[in-house]
Amino acid sequence: MKKLVFLVSGIVLMACTTNENSQWRGQHRDGVYHETGLLKEWPAEGPQLLWHYDDLGAGHSSVATANNKIYVTGMIDSTGYLFVLDLKGNLLEKKAYGLEWNENFNGSRSTVNVDNGKLYIFSGRSVLYCFDDKTMDLIWSKDLMNDFDGKKLQFGITESPLIVGDMIYMTPGGEKNNMVALNKNTGELIWSSTGIGKPSTYCSPQYVDDTDIPLVVNAIDSNLVAFNAQTGEMLWETDQKNPHGHNPNTPIYSDGAIFSISGGGVGSMLLRLKDGGRGFEKVWSHEMDSKLGAAVKVGDYVYGSGEKNRYWYCVDWKTGETKYKDNQLGVGNIISADGMLYCYSDKGDLALVKATPEKFDIKGQIKITLGTEQHWAHPVIYKGVLYLRHGNSLMAYKIS
How far is Cα 122 from Cα 120, in angstroms, rounded to an integer? Predict the structure, then answer.
């Protein structure tokens, strides 16, 4: 009996000490959240607003959620701050981390990566910080622009760190250090790749691990580029020519294929990987040309919106066929959970839409009136609650 008690106690202790991680756009960086029991239709007044916190300062970074805490960054008087809140909206920590982007569309951009008790923040000024989650002490920092000869971008750095195992992948965008892998515990360089030697482009990389060679795939300037995740060897690249070199949407990987979308009328494309990830073939292209909102894959379909082509689209993943295009809602960001789409327009409308190829089927809609500046932050779902940041405000809506 004593052995059984010790065994049960050990299991409970392990469960209590397990670290929950969180990163940009969900577990697989694809905007799909694996929540269930969510509302399939909202009441006329919209989902219940549980609380709002209105002192974040400037920025459009999305939140990270882990271990019953919320992590988000903002800028006050040119200084970047990390805010940590509990699930009731109470401020637990406010930690200054350094100079933030204050030249245009001011404020924080990158989503915090919560990884095994450490917090990784990438400022709009290209400084990567690693903090201890419990003590908020700085463990290490790297200035990617100065340390790796990176290129300054017109609108600041927006890349959210990608962590796999002990490696953290970043894109300085320099001629010699086009993409790098660092040790996440020390910040020391593991590998550097010359890549294509062009500037980075506001994009956060994607990881592919079910090929012969594990890949890191990222948009760099007007190209989509794949690297060997272990060595940094560039394996392939292809054009995705944006008129301004802006390709900010993280690629989606599924079923042996990569979907990449770019704004400015460039559109989107599906690439089928070949030779264990060493090459690709282009399957189809499409007019859907999101600038900031990315896309989601639900079942056999891709849902997203355009920039110049200002519609919401449903596209067949296998064929590239347009199932619908609809403009009854302003274009913007999109995430998905439990068979539903959550569409947040750049005009401040938040809509619940059924994920079906039949039509853009809105099941509820509200206007976001709290907050400031641009409606650019991506929504996040955690434990039945949708978190939405708009400038200086963070809102929590009960959607279960």
Answer: 7
pLDDT of the residue at 24? 98
pTM value is 0.94
First to last CA, the chain: 40
Maximum pairwise Cα distance, the chain: 71
Q: Which of 155, 147, 105 is nearest to 127 (CA)?
A: 147
- Lowest mean pLDDT segment, chosen from 13-17, 23-27, 30-34, 188-192: 13-17
Q: What is the dihedral of CA 164, 167, 171, 174, to 10 degrees?
A: -160
Do 388 and 344 contact (CB within 8 A), yes or no? yes
26: left (phi over 0), alpha (psi -120 to 50) or beta: left
H/E run at residue 285: strand 279-286
Strand residue runs (E) in 68-137: 69-76, 79-86, 91-99, 113-115, 118-122, 127-132
- Supply the DSSP string of 131-175, one letter for each residue: EETTT--EEEEEEHHHHTT----TT---PPPEEETTEEEE----S
Give the helix/strand (H/E) hosting 6.
Answer: helix 2-17
Query: What's the pLDDT band for 2 if we cut at 50, 70, 90?
Result: very low
Is residue 24 within 8 Å of 160, Cβ to Cβ? Answer: yes
Counts for the chain of helices (H) and strands (E), in that order = 2, 33
Using DSSP's 3-state secondary structure scheme, residue 275 falls into helix
Nearest-5° Cα angle at 29, 25 to 31: 50
Pick the closest to residue 147 from 132, 126, 123, 124 (CA basis).
126
Q: Give 161-167 contacts, CB < 8 A, sequence gap 24+.
A: 161/23, 161/110, 161/113, 161/120, 161/122, 161/128, 161/204, 162/23, 162/29, 162/113, 162/204, 162/205, 162/206, 162/207, 162/216, 163/23, 163/113, 163/115, 163/120, 164/207, 164/209, 164/214, 164/229, 167/229
Q: What angle do CA 124, 125, 130 make, to 5 degrees?
A: 85
Instruction: With CA atoms as reference, report the closest residue to 29 among 385, 392, 378.
Output: 378
Number of Cβ within 10 Å of residue 324's Cβ equals 17
pLDDT at 16 over 70: no
